[in-house]
Write a structure and sequence with these properties.
By secondary structure, the chain is an alpha/beta fold. Among the domains are: 47 residues, no CATH class; 233 residues, Aspartate Aminotransferase, domain 2 (3-Layer(aba) Sandwich), CATH 3.40.640.10; 68 residues, Alpha-Beta Complex (Molybdopterin biosynthesis moea protein, domain 2). 40% of the residues lie in helices and 16% in strands. It is built from 20 helices and 21 strands. The strands form 7 sheets. It has a 7-stranded mixed sheet with strand order 4-13-12-11-9-5-6, with helices on both faces. Strands 15-18-17 form a 3-stranded antiparallel sheet, with helices on one face. A 3-stranded antiparallel sheet has the order 19-20-21, covered by helices on one side.
Length: 526
């Protein structure tokens, strides 16, 4: 991100001036008057200065200005009220009869959640204002019981791993590489079937259906196979990046809820969505959907009461309601427009030799394909520096996944944004300046696990928050190479003891050595 020179940045004016105290000497009063015009708030100052640069060409998640530009006048009026003059009145500690109970709603919040459940095809939907990390935690908490066993997606986001720590966690058989893992679907189906046949089925299966890099599970092929293999296993599906797909006719029947609702389920299916990533919702807005019985829904409600903040954000809750209404009315149209922009961008990229070489094929396989709204560009090991340069010099925001830039063509993207991205990319040939001078936090980059040792900790680069190694995993040369690459890209590296405290890695730490434990491999080859 942009790192300003704090000493040279103009300070932000105060919104209110405090009254001066009588009796001060003139010089002190004059000095106080001079400094009362400024606010010593570095974060506020930074964001104020950043937003003065004008529109950010955001290819990551839906930005609010784009929501206002793309929505109809009716929706724009509601959104402007939500973020503008009415914000101070909406953002209050409403509860009970004032608006509705958050944990046991019976009024407008209950109506909004019911309409959202119907739109997505769920038996019940719960709004969340603490992000999808909290929704994932709530989902697993609702299914937890003493001795529960969880078969965990080997590429699961850290929030799912941490939420399952009170249970016995077994990683799914894994395909791909250390730096780019994915579930071996057929081996996972065999493992599920074997355990069910032995009378000890897994209690919960966790799937990460969408990835940071645009890769996603072909759920219309994967879910029938896995449900048939172990019909009594409850399933939690993290669909963080594809909430909008439910409103696109060509994609809707391949979403988790649509596929699961067509299967003869004997256990609940819980699905989470980061609404703000692809829909017109405020950040931290999340949906938790339930396919299941009344008792399944009640367990989710009680788990939500246990985990969610008791001070929910009513602006975020309101935006979740508006986002569903907006997607239902405009989702299909906006998707068509977005795909047209993607085709146009690909054509622009192919027209220049430098950018033509960046295009990455999005060919999938039997169980994985790619989000049609995502474009990936291979730029090499300096992907982080290029990302930062695009933001600093061209106000273009993209994300990175390994050596690639990830360009998300959400419904807020315009032709103007495409032109800004192309301008930045076309200038790369002439050089984009020195490497970023943003130093990694002290102590993060100087530890080195021993090859051949076995970790009792998670080793997680953030972003994206998918572990390079888990407790019980053998550290190999491939792990060491992947760690070196993440360091070069400037990722924060975290080491977390399983079920213990969180800490950043330091050079004085030593990786614990013990017996290799890989329960899924033992079961798979039994």
């Amino acid at each position: 991100m942009i790192e300003p020179n704090w000493k040279s940045q103009p300070a932000m004016p105060l919104l209110h001036r405090s009254c001066s105290t009588p009796g001060l000497r003139r010089s002190k009063r004059g000095m106080q008057s001079m400094h009362s015009h400024y606010l010593d708030a570095p974060l506020a100052t930074h964001l104020t200065n950043f937003t003065r640069s004008g529109r950010c060409h955001n290819f990551h998640a839906v930005p609010w200005p784009a929501v206002l530009d793309a929505a109809s006048s009716e929706f724009a009026q509601h959104y402007r009220a939500l973020l503008g003059a009415d914000l101070s009145r909406i953002d209050a500690s409403w509860s009970g009869s004032a608006v509705d109970s958050f944990f046991t709603p019976h009024g407008p919040l209950a109506d909004a959640q019911q309409k959202t459940a119907a739109a997505f095809g769920a038996d019940a939907t719960f709004f969340g204002t603490s992000g999808t990390s909290a929704s994932n935690q709530i989902a697993l908490e609702s299914l937890r019981f003493p001795g529960a066993e969880v078969l965990m997606d080997c590429a699961a986001h850290q929030s799912l791993l941490f939420a399952a720590e009170a249970m016995t966690v077994v990683p799914t058989p894994c395909a791909g590489s250390v730096e780019n893992p994915r579930v071996d679907v057929e081996a996972t189906a065999r493992l599920l079937a074997r355990r069910a046949a032995e009378g000890r089925p897994f209690d919960i299966l966790v799937l990460s259906a969408t990835g940071y890099d645009g890769r996603k599970l072909r759920l219309d092929r994967v879910l029938p196979l896995l449900v048939t293999s172990s019909p009594t296993t409850a399933i939690v599906i993290d669909e963080a990046w594809s909430a909008m797909h439910a409103f696109v006719p060509s994609l809707a029947d391949k979403t988790a809820l649509a596929v699961a609702s067509s299967l003869p389920l004997r256990a609940p299916v819980l699905v989470t969505h980061s609404a703000h990533k692809t829909m017109a919702a405020l950040r931290q807005g999340s949906y938790l959907h339930v396919l299941g019985s009344a008792s399944d829904i009640e367990r989710v409600r009680l788990a939500r009461y246990r985990i969610h903040t008791t001070s929910p954000s009513w602006p975020i809750l309101t935006s979740l309601d508006l986002a569903r209404a907006h997607a239902a009315q405009f989702g299909a149209r906006e998707f068509s427009r977005t795909i047209s922009l993607k085709v146009k961008l690909e054509s622009m990229l192919r027209a220049e030799p430098l950018t033509a070489r960046m295009l990455v094929s999005s060919t999938g396989d039997a169980y994985y394909d790619f989000d049609p709204m995502v474009l990936r560009l291979h730029v090499g090991s300096r992907s982080r520096d290029i990302r930062d340069w695009l933001l600093r010099e061209h106000h273009v925001l993209v994300t990175i996944a390994g050596d690639q830039l990830v360009v998300r063509l959400h419904f807020g993207v315009t032709d103007h944004d495409l032109q800004a991205l192309m301008k930045g990319l076309s200038l790369l040939e002439s050089g984009f300046g020195s490497q970023s001078n943003i130093l990694p936090p002290t102590g993060l980059q100087d530890f080195e696990p021993s090859i051949g040792s076995c970790s009792r900790e998670y080793i997680i680069p953030y972003p994206p928050g998918v572990p390079l190694a888990r407790p019980g995993e053998l550290w190999t040369e491939r792990h060491a190479m992947a760690l070196a690459q993440e360091r070069a890209r400037g990722a924060e590296i975290y080491r977390l003891a399983a079920g213990g405290s969180t800490r950043r890695a330091t050079s004085s730490d030593e990786i614990s050595v013990g017996a290799v434990l890989n329960p899924s491999a033992e079961d798979e080859h039994a």
